[in-house]
Design brief:
about 160 residues, Rossmann fold, globular, binds 4'-phosphopantetheine
Length: about 160
Protein backbone atom coordinates (compact mmCIF):
# COMPACT_ATOMS: atom_id res chain seq x y z
CA UNK A 1 0.00 0.00 0.00
CA UNK A 2 1.32 3.41 -0.98
CA UNK A 3 1.60 6.01 1.74
CA UNK A 4 1.00 9.60 0.75
CA UNK A 5 2.01 12.43 3.10
CA UNK A 6 1.15 16.12 3.18
CA UNK A 7 3.79 18.62 4.28
CA UNK A 8 1.76 21.79 4.97
CA UNK A 9 2.93 25.28 5.80
CA UNK A 10 3.06 28.93 4.90
CA UNK A 11 6.35 28.62 2.98
CA UNK A 12 6.62 32.41 2.70
CA UNK A 13 9.16 31.81 1.21
CA UNK A 14 10.44 28.22 1.15
CA UNK A 15 13.89 27.91 2.80
CA UNK A 16 16.64 25.29 2.63
CA UNK A 17 15.30 24.06 5.97
CA UNK A 18 11.94 23.30 4.34
CA UNK A 19 13.67 21.67 1.35
CA UNK A 20 15.63 19.45 3.74
CA UNK A 21 12.45 18.29 5.52
CA UNK A 22 10.64 17.69 2.21
CA UNK A 23 13.58 15.63 0.87
CA UNK A 24 13.72 13.52 4.04
CA UNK A 25 9.96 12.98 3.90
CA UNK A 26 10.19 11.95 0.24
CA UNK A 27 12.77 9.31 1.19
CA UNK A 28 10.27 7.80 3.65
CA UNK A 29 6.86 8.16 1.97
CA UNK A 30 5.74 7.13 -1.51
CA UNK A 31 4.44 10.59 -2.33
CA UNK A 32 4.79 13.93 -0.56
CA UNK A 33 2.50 16.86 -1.27
CA UNK A 34 4.05 20.12 -0.15
CA UNK A 35 0.99 22.27 0.34
CA UNK A 36 0.82 25.99 0.93
CA UNK A 37 -1.91 27.44 3.11
CA UNK A 38 -4.12 30.03 1.42
CA UNK A 39 -4.72 32.22 4.45
CA UNK A 40 -7.48 34.74 3.78
CA UNK A 41 -6.89 36.38 7.18
CA UNK A 42 -3.17 36.97 6.73
CA UNK A 43 -1.61 38.62 3.69
CA UNK A 44 1.77 37.00 3.12
CA UNK A 45 4.92 38.62 1.78
CA UNK A 46 4.64 36.57 -1.39
CA UNK A 47 1.41 35.56 -3.10
CA UNK A 48 0.39 31.92 -2.91
CA UNK A 49 1.16 31.47 -6.62
CA UNK A 50 4.66 32.98 -6.15
CA UNK A 51 5.24 30.69 -3.18
CA UNK A 52 4.07 27.66 -5.16
CA UNK A 53 6.33 28.62 -8.05
CA UNK A 54 9.38 28.97 -5.75
CA UNK A 55 8.57 25.69 -3.98
CA UNK A 56 8.13 23.85 -7.30
CA UNK A 57 11.45 25.13 -8.62
CA UNK A 58 13.23 24.29 -5.34
CA UNK A 59 11.87 20.74 -5.22
CA UNK A 60 11.85 19.81 -8.91
CA UNK A 61 14.81 17.46 -8.32
CA UNK A 62 12.64 15.12 -6.20
CA UNK A 63 10.31 13.07 -8.39
CA UNK A 64 7.83 12.01 -5.70
CA UNK A 65 7.13 15.53 -4.42
CA UNK A 66 4.38 17.73 -5.80
CA UNK A 67 3.41 21.23 -4.75
CA UNK A 68 -0.15 22.35 -4.15
CA UNK A 69 -2.12 24.88 -2.07
CA UNK A 70 -5.10 24.50 0.24
CA UNK A 71 -7.58 26.45 2.30
CA UNK A 72 -9.81 25.45 5.17
CA UNK A 73 -8.97 22.75 7.65
CA UNK A 74 -5.77 20.86 7.07
CA UNK A 75 -7.29 17.50 8.04
CA UNK A 76 -10.07 17.95 5.46
CA UNK A 77 -7.48 18.66 2.79
CA UNK A 78 -5.38 15.64 3.86
CA UNK A 79 -8.46 13.41 3.50
CA UNK A 80 -9.28 14.90 0.08
CA UNK A 81 -5.74 14.03 -1.02
CA UNK A 82 -6.24 10.49 0.20
CA UNK A 83 -3.17 10.94 2.41
CA UNK A 84 -2.70 9.45 5.86
CA UNK A 85 0.17 11.50 7.21
CA UNK A 86 0.96 15.13 8.05
CA UNK A 87 4.67 15.95 8.03
CA UNK A 88 6.04 18.80 10.12
CA UNK A 89 9.64 19.84 10.73
CA UNK A 90 11.10 20.53 14.16
CA UNK A 91 13.99 22.96 14.55
CA UNK A 92 14.18 23.36 18.30
CA UNK A 93 12.33 22.66 21.52
CA UNK A 94 10.64 26.02 21.10
CA UNK A 95 8.80 24.66 18.05
CA UNK A 96 7.60 21.67 19.97
CA UNK A 97 4.86 23.18 22.11
CA UNK A 98 3.02 24.69 19.14
CA UNK A 99 3.55 21.61 17.00
CA UNK A 100 2.42 19.26 19.76
CA UNK A 101 -0.75 21.26 20.31
CA UNK A 102 -1.46 21.33 16.57
CA UNK A 103 -0.84 17.57 16.26
CA UNK A 104 -3.22 16.86 19.14
CA UNK A 105 -5.87 19.16 17.70
CA UNK A 106 -5.57 17.49 14.31
CA UNK A 107 -5.76 14.08 15.97
CA UNK A 108 -8.94 15.13 17.77
CA UNK A 109 -10.41 16.22 14.43
CA UNK A 110 -9.22 13.19 12.47
CA UNK A 111 -7.81 10.33 14.60
CA UNK A 112 -6.92 8.28 11.52
CA UNK A 113 -4.35 10.86 10.33
CA UNK A 114 -0.86 10.61 11.80
CA UNK A 115 1.44 13.58 12.38
CA UNK A 116 5.05 12.71 11.61
CA UNK A 117 7.83 14.99 12.88
CA UNK A 118 11.18 15.26 11.14
CA UNK A 119 14.06 16.96 12.94
CA UNK A 120 15.98 19.48 10.90
CA UNK A 121 19.67 19.46 10.17
CA UNK A 122 21.34 21.57 12.91
CA UNK A 123 22.66 23.91 10.21
CA UNK A 124 19.07 25.01 9.56
CA UNK A 125 17.92 25.11 13.18
CA UNK A 126 17.86 28.92 13.25
CA UNK A 127 16.35 29.42 9.77
CA UNK A 128 12.79 30.69 9.44
CA UNK A 129 10.94 32.35 6.55
CA UNK A 130 10.35 35.49 8.62
CA UNK A 131 14.02 35.86 9.60
CA UNK A 132 15.05 35.29 5.98
CA UNK A 133 12.75 38.12 4.82
CA UNK A 134 13.95 40.46 7.53
CA UNK A 135 17.67 39.73 7.18
CA UNK A 136 17.49 40.16 3.43
CA UNK A 137 15.50 43.36 3.76
CA UNK A 138 18.20 44.90 5.96
CA UNK A 139 21.03 43.81 3.69
CA UNK A 140 22.20 40.63 5.45
CA UNK A 141 23.26 37.50 3.59
CA UNK A 142 20.75 34.69 3.16
CA UNK A 143 22.57 33.06 0.23
CA UNK A 144 23.26 29.84 2.13
CA UNK A 145 19.83 29.36 3.66
CA UNK A 146 17.45 29.70 0.72
CA UNK A 147 17.27 28.01 -2.71
CA UNK A 148 18.69 30.09 -5.61
CA UNK A 149 15.22 30.77 -7.03
CA UNK A 150 14.15 32.28 -3.70
CA UNK A 151 17.29 34.38 -3.47
CA UNK A 152 16.54 35.86 -6.90
CA UNK A 153 12.91 36.48 -5.97
CA UNK A 154 13.95 38.24 -2.76
CA UNK A 155 16.28 40.44 -4.80
CA UNK A 156 13.39 41.44 -7.06
CA UNK A 157 11.04 42.00 -4.15
CA UNK A 158 13.19 43.97 -1.73
CA UNK A 159 16.01 45.56 -3.71
CA UNK A 160 13.59 47.09 -6.21
CA UNK A 161 11.32 48.37 -3.42
O1 LIG B 1 4.32 27.15 8.26
P1 LIG B 1 3.27 27.37 9.32
O2 LIG B 1 2.67 28.76 9.19
O3 LIG B 1 3.77 27.08 10.71
O4 LIG B 1 2.07 26.31 9.00
C1 LIG B 1 0.91 26.27 9.80
C2 LIG B 1 -0.19 25.43 9.14
C3 LIG B 1 -0.47 25.89 7.74
C4 LIG B 1 0.26 23.98 9.08
C5 LIG B 1 -1.47 25.53 10.04
O5 LIG B 1 -1.74 26.86 10.30
C6 LIG B 1 -2.70 24.89 9.42
O6 LIG B 1 -2.77 23.69 9.28
N1 LIG B 1 -3.68 25.72 9.04
C7 LIG B 1 -4.90 25.27 8.39
C8 LIG B 1 -6.13 25.43 9.29
C9 LIG B 1 -6.21 24.30 10.29
O7 LIG B 1 -6.40 23.14 9.95
N2 LIG B 1 -6.05 24.64 11.57
C10 LIG B 1 -6.10 23.69 12.65
C11 LIG B 1 -4.72 23.16 12.98
S1 LIG B 1 -4.61 23.08 14.72
Amino acid sequence: MKVRAVYPGSFDPITNGHVYIAERAAAIFDEVIVSILINERKQGSFSVSERCEMARASLSHVSNIRVDSFNGLLVDYVKQCDAGVIVRGLRAMSDFEYEFQMALMNRKLAPEIETFFIVTDPKYSYVSSSSVREIFHFGGSVRDVVPDVVFEKLRERYRDA
